[in-house]
Structures are given as C-alpha cells and as structure tokens.
Amino acid sequence: xxxxxxxxxxxxxxxxxxxxxxxxxxxxxxxxxxxxxxxxxxxxxxxxxxxxxxxxxxxxxxxxxxxxxxxxxxxxxxxxxxxxxxxxxxxxxxxxxxxxxxxxxxxxxxxxxxxxxxxxxxxxxxxxxxxxxxxxxxxxxxxxxxxxxxxxxxxxxxxxxxxxxxx
Length: 167
Prior knowledge:
Elements: H1 3-17, H2 22-25, H3 36-60, H4 96-115, H5 119-124, E1 126-129, E2 133-136, H6 137-166
Antiparallel strand pairs: 1-2
C-alpha cells in the first residue's frame, strides 16, 4: 500500500489552501471551472465512492481477477476525463474546517477497509474504472494518490487565478 505517499499528497493539498479564506476557496475562477472547495469536494466524493466500492467488492469476494493497469497515467492532465456524475462537486458553500473533516473521515474509512482486508483478496478481486477497465483492488489505494496528485495541479492553478483576482 502507498499510505505515506497518499498522506503526503493530501497534506500538500491541505497546506496549499490553508492561507485562503473560506470565501476565496468557494470562488470559481470562471463559470466553467471548479472552485478550490469544489476540487476538495470532488476528492472527498471520489475517495468515498472508491472506498465503498472496494468494501462491497471485498464482501462479495467473487474472485474477479484483473491485470495491473498503468494507473500512474491518471496524473496526466492533458488527458481530459469527465468526473462520474456521483463525484461531481456540489455548488454548496463549505468552510475549510468542514471540508477537512469530511476528507479526514473519508481517508480514515479507506484505511479501515484496507486494514481489514488481506492482500490475497485485494489481488484476486477487481473493480471497474471508467478509463482503465477492471482494476485490481490492490491498485485502487495508490490510484487515489495519483488522482489527488492530478487535482493538486488543478488546485494550484485555481488558487493562482483566485490570488491574481485579489491583486
């Protein structure tokens, strides 16, 4: 598992936003872009969805094995991927404190699911991904880190634009 790397990426994301006000974090750079808070909401929803999917797949244990996929490619933002509907962020005002709590909750739940699942089950079961097809459960944990790394670049862009508007 990639616990340290995922924790590092999450920490970096939260450090990037801490100096901005809740108002700034909820501000969209343009009508067709997500606000920083919407990016965080998307990360939360994505982690929740993946965790629930892994837990459900582990429970069924249907032994649907898959070959490892090049999930590290998810970091490449040149390849545009539309977020699945259930992970599209809300148009809701969130405080950073609320969102940090939600992100901590989803990460803790993810850790619980992986901690109580043995390696063999993670290797012998898979779950579908909209781009990669069936991905072994063992790869979904690092996928979350790659996905967050992808959105870290988006977040940095968004924060830069918000900062430029201020000045």
